[in-house]
Amino acid sequence: MSLDTEHLRLVEAMLFAADRPLPEVVLAGKLPEGTDLSAILARLQADYAGRGVNLVRRGDAWAFRTAPDLAGSLAVEQTQVRRLSRAAIEVLAIIAYNQPVTRAEIEEVRGVALSKGTLDLLFEAGWIRPRGRRRTVGKPLQWGTTDAFLDHFGLESLEDLPSLKELKAAGLLDTRPAANAYGNRAVDGLVPVDVDEPEEEPELDLGHDEEDEYGLAE
């Protein structure tokens, strides 16, 4: 099946111009109704497979990214613009492995009250988003990760998250038995923070203001 060259070029240009992965619904919105977006993306992915940049999928979104084998050659020193405290990182991990999860469930896993503003900071960074309300008393808000979270950590989907064994082997997870017994909703299990451990305030410097939602000119 032949593809319309102009449609192919339009999607290619949109992906190059965007400052973040573009959802398929955004791409489709710029194309005539009935256009086979999947075929266009597959064609672009094949065209760029052996080049310096590759077309990659991040959840339901797509973006051009540097070819993995060239990453070492392009490494440069730069100022770290995002700094998360240990507490904020733990909250992000709990959400990633247990989503959708409520604030109360996050606090139950960690064993301490959630510091004011932690969820706001992660939300402002674009790594978490509301996932509806739980159908229980009080209808608490549920949280889950975003495509931006997948893109930042180089994941195609949540299935690519490291397993409990991999986290332990890397020294990123407590190896005590308690790490496996904090609750029933975990995918693999995360370590709860000791109750008497002081809460750390999360710090986050987003580094710049966003001009528009996807970095595309109107």
How would you describe the overall organization of this protein?
The chain has 218 residues and is an alpha+beta fold. The protein folds into two domains: 5-74, Winged helix-like DNA-binding domain superfamily/Winged helix DNA-binding domain (Arc Repressor Mutant, subunit A, Orthogonal Bundle); 86-180, Winged helix-like DNA-binding domain superfamily/Winged helix DNA-binding domain (Arc Repressor Mutant, subunit A, Orthogonal Bundle). Helices cover 32% and strands 12% of the residues. The strands form two sheets. Strands 1-3-2 form a three-stranded antiparallel sheet. A hairpin with a 7-residue loop joins strand 5 and strand 6. The longest helix is centred in the first third of the chain and has 13 residues, at 5-17. It is globular, with a radius of gyration of 20 Å. The two termini are 31 Å apart.
Give the topology:
Blueprint: H1 5-17, E1 22-23, H2 24-29, H3 37-47, E2 53-58, E3 61-66, H4 86-98, E4 101-102, H5 103-110, H6 118-124, E5 128-133, E6 141-145, H7 147-152, H8 164-169
Antiparallel strand pairs: 1-3, 2-3, 4-6, 5-6
Q: Give the beta-strand count.
A: 6
Order of SSEs, N→C?
HEHHEEHEHHEEHH
What kind of assembly state do the chains in view correspond to? single chain
Give the class-level CATH name of the largest domain: Mainly Alpha
Describe the sheet with the most strands: 3 strands, antiparallel
Number of individual domains: 2
Into which percent range does the helicity of residues fall? 25-40%
Q: What is the SS-derived class?
A: alpha+beta
Distance between the termini: 31 Å
**Helix count?**
8
Compute the CA-based radius of gyration.
Answer: 20 Å
CATH homologous superfamily designation of the largest domain: Winged helix-like DNA-binding domain superfamily/Winged helix DNA-binding domain
Instruction: Return the CATH topology of the largest domain.
Output: Arc Repressor Mutant, subunit A
Question: What's the overall average pLDDT, rounded?
Answer: 78
Amount of beta strand? 5-15%
Strand order of the largest sheet: 1-3-2
CATH architecture of the largest domain: Orthogonal Bundle
| Morphology | globular
- Low-pLDDT stretches are 175-213
